[in-house]
Structure formats: structure tokens, C-alpha cells
Amino acid sequence: MRLLLIHADHFEYEVKNEAVKEPEPVLESNRKDVMDDVLVAFCTVEKADEKNPDQIAAKAAESIKEVAGWVKTKSIMVYPYAHLSSNLGSKEYAIPLLQRLGSSLQDEGYNVKRSPFGWYKSFEIRCKGHPLSELSRTIVIEEATKEAVPVKTEYKILSLDGKIYEPDAYPFKPNEKEFKALVEKEALKIGLAGGEPRLIDYCKKFGIEWEPYSDVGHMRYGPEATLIFELIGDYSWQVANSFGIPVLQVRGTNMFDLSVKAVKEHANLFGARLYEVKVDEKAFVMRYAACHQQFAMVKDWALSYRNVPFGTFEVADSYRLEQSGELLLCFRVRKLHMPDLHIYCKNLDEAKEMSMKVHKKIYQEIRKLDRDYVSIYNTTKSFFEKHREFFDELIKVERKPILLNFVPDGIYYWVINVEYTVIDELERPREIATFQIDMGNAERFGIAYTDRDGAKRCPPIIHTALLGTVERYLFTVLDKASKMEERGKKPMLPVWLSPVQVRIIPIKKRQIPLAKKLLAELERASIRVDVDDREESLSKRIRDAEISWIPYILVLGEREMRSKKFPVRVRAKDGQIKMNIKTLTQAISKETAGYSYRALTIPRLVSERPGYKAI
Asked: Is there a domain that residue 483 lies in?
């Protein structure tokens, strides 16, 4: 079954003419109808649904209920819609399936109306327009999973003083607003507010957008955005190398054969978001992180206890078949780039020790952005109880309570999986970074080292994305900018990520030679700088630089040519400061110390860029 779910302010329809022979009988009560503040479920019953109509109806009802909870409505319109698939089911199965779907929702206390099947109808809809107002779902019952029992988890809250609370009984403190937002969404399943984040507009500023010629959920990057992307990738490699152990950078393919037992088992653990392709009658999975490639490579290495611990790293293009209605630029995408670090350890004790270093590094990096995480610790009760002191040490770094999610033993390859989450400007939790201690994949992929006694041992493996994906790190940076704007400050990127760090604006044409000389001097100090030599007024060029979030704007006139001191607009201070080149260089060097650097990749003279004209 295919579902298109639209949260509407208003929906109405009217039956017109028969669309199939002997359609569902029309009653006066459903010939036409109107509903307000309604979740409209456009439903297409497919041929494959005829094998398991009861299970399809139940699963579709659960999916619709979930979305209704998110958008906070109790009104649902079940609307047969034949245009979401070309493989339509017969009316003999479709009509009773949709009837069961409507009855199931009604039994759960929803106000449900259902338009009749097999008719052409006119309809009018007014969509609300928030991020969750348009969602799609594909409802499938796989033969292999008919008897599968859903994984039941149990949420608890662990406070800083070591007490454990039920989520609905925890006494939130005034300064725990972000943690409360996480608990309400994840543990209490309270619906979240809608709205469009400011970062959508910010993305356009730097040339970050969806690629309309691809599948949905794929991004493209203009010249400035590409520079930002590469800087984040470079920095993720730099951070991965900060643990004092060998880290080996590797690279490989993004497509793996599902007939390989290890690949298939690992893919099955990932779940429904697999991005699969078929080539020459063979099924392949697009990798969703760097695990496949790194594990396939490391299994062929001759390893001894002398080599361990060590890491492997790749900024891996990865693919996840996210629901099209839930896609969000820079956050929920179908192609992402995972700076994936795996650390191979001798034993669990060493893995815990390395994980503590990873945990501290993850918090160190987010706090550099003047942000903080609220965290979910997915683990088993047995691991938590046996290693309680490990959790006590982890929470000290958090400086706040954590949300525990207890999962059954023996289900997952990891024993602990921490999700580091920011609360965005819309007060929605967004998972950014992660780490896991993996106790299963070394054996699954045949990775082993030789210990002192000559025995083969499978290493525990730490999986971590220290900054999150490249896209999600950028999301965090842009969301920080939105919070700055919310507080009345000028939004900006960190100086090390700003494509142009200094713009020189000569007032007259005769100042251009000096502007070029200053540009060369600043570039020698590893500063990205350009010159706005366009035939525009001074005020327009300053305004354009402000719109582009350039952190330092240097205006060059006759007086400045003589004094060698320049009025510099400093975005972070929202003011103007007189500076010479040495002072300006020192200020930027201080702000960018410890971060990655790349030279500017676009013309230094603004007039040489497409669409501009020189003075």
C-alpha cells in the first residue's frame, strides 16, 4: 500500500462518476463530506497487498496513527487514490482492506471518515505547510518478517546524582528545557510543533540546495558551499587523528553485494531504510556508513596485539532511503557524507577507555560551537548494570541527565549506542554525532588479531562520527546562526568556515592596485580574501558583503591609503574598528587556530564572477 499523508486546514470532496465497473455503493452520508484540521490519508492498494490484507490494514493504521500523533489531530479522512502506484490491487481486496483500515482507526478513538472506492471525485484541500504536513509511506509485509515480534524498549532517565526515574515522573529543572524536549519527543511520544527553519534561506545564500535532476533527497553544492563542505571533511579527519593512536585513511566503493553473508546480516540490522539497486540480476545495497568498506578491507590485514588499538577513517558517501515527506536540507537526506571512524580495540576494557576519549572529544567539539548536546544512551539492562561505573563517568562529561533506552539482549551488534542530539530553533531534537561499542561485526566480517599467546581474537570496534555527518555538522552551524538571529545578533558562520573571510572594498578605481596588494599580503597569512571591484555604489557593496555574512569588511579610501589603518566592519561585534593589516591578521588567526584551511576557490575579484562588471 502507498500512503500520501497531508495535514490540512480544510478538505472536502464530492462523488461525480464511476471510475470502475460496480464501484463501492455510495450512501447519502458519504456522497460528499467536509473536514477541518484533518490528516488526509490518500491510499493506493497494490497487488502485493492482496497476500496479507489484514496485516497491511493494521500496519497502515499504525503508520497513520503515528503521524496523527505528530501533527496533533484526531480527525482522519481515508481517501482511495489510484495515482500513487501503477500496480493496483483489485477492488475485491481493496474495498474490504480500506474498510478495515477505517474501522481500526475508529476503534482507537479517532474521528474517521472514508470516501467511497471506485469513483471519480472532485476534491479541495488546503495543506497546513509545516515540515510534517506532507509525508509519504510505503506499507509492505515481507514474507520473512510476518512472524517477527516488534522490539520493545524501555525508557528511563538517569540523573547526575545517579537516580533513575520514569520519564513521566522526572522533576525537570528550569535549565533542562532542551533535555525535556528530547524526553517528550523520544520517550513520551508527544507531538512536535511545525514550522520551517531559517536555515533553508541560509542554505540558498551559500549555494546549498536540492538537486532537481536526481532522486529526491540528494543535495548539490555551489562553489562557496563546496569550499565549506571540504573544510568540514578536512576538519573531521583532523579530529579523528587527535587520539594518539594510528588512524589509517582508506577509500572504497559505496555498493555491496547482498549475497555476501556478512553484508546481508549487517544490512538486515539496519532496517527499512536500505537503498538497494539491482545490476545483472544481482541485488546490491548502497552503503549507509563506511562499515562495509572498512571491515571488508581490515579483514584482509595481518594484525597482532602490537597493532591494536588503531583506527580506520573515510568521509564515506552513504545512502539512506528516508521517507520523502521527512526530508530536510542538510539534515535528513538520502545521500550523506559520513566522516566514519572505526577504532579496533584489544578487549572491552580498552574499548570503554577509548570510548571515554571519544565521548569527551564529541562534547569538546560541540561546545566549540557554543552548543551542547542532550543524549540518548541505547543499551541493555545487563550491560548497564554490569558497567554502571562506566555510565557514571560518561554522565560527568554530559553535566546533565541522560535518557536511557533499554533494548533486549542479543538483538543488536552493539552493547551501547549513544545518540548526541541538539535541539534546533523549532525546539525539535536532531541527532548529530554518535558512538557505539560493537561486539559483533568483527566476528561477522572475519576481523581478528593475534594476541601474545598466538590465539586469534576478534576486536571490539568503536563506531563514531565525531562531528556527525558533514551535512549535519553544517546543519548545527546554520541552526546556531538562526539562534543568534533570534537573539537579535547578526547570524554568521564560524570564521574558519566562512568562504570569504575578508572583503576589501576600494571606494575608487585608483585604490584597486593597493587592494590587490593587501589581498596578496592577507593570503600569505592563510586568509581567504577577495576584492569587490564592481561598478556599484559603496553602500551597495557594503550591503552585499553583509548579506553574504562576510566576517570582516575592509573599506579602502584615500585617507586609508595614506594612514595604513583601515575601518573594518567586524560582523561578530556588529561594529567598526580601525585596524592595520597586522592587527587584522592576528585577529583572524586567533579565531581560526586549530581548524582546517583551504584557499579560496573562486575568483578573487568579484567582477570576474558570472554576472558582475568591474569599475
From this structure: no
